[in-house]
Design brief:
alpha+beta; single chain; globular
Length: about 140
Amino acid sequence: MTVHNLYIFDRNGTCLHYSEWSRRKHAGISRDEEFKLMYGMLFSIRSFVSKMSPLDMRDGFVCFQTSRYKLHYYETPTGLKFIMNTDLSVPNARETLQQIYSTLYVEYIVKNPLCVLGETLQSELFTSRLDTFIRALPYYSPRAA
């Protein structure tokens, strides 16, 4: 089991942060183009799921999987979007994404007067704590990639 990468987007689709751990294949396009594609795909999937689901979508779109990876999604009430790609054996990571938001993002970005909300995250402390947090997850394994 492993974590491949993590995206954090604001409500306007700007990628505020991107981290990578064990990603073997790259998209072959620029990072900015990749961010636009990811956000556009999420926007489309959320819209599709909300319109087509026969069940109450109280929690909304949570995750989807392909034959190769699983995408986990969490959106905060303020519109921040946390997206984590993992291998297929990782269970629902919604709680993990909520923890990243509440214990890392809020503590090291929102409460930091030097960080400007809505801009690319420049906090080295946030980045290092995020890396430590991900590597401590029970389903993180750098060799599994």
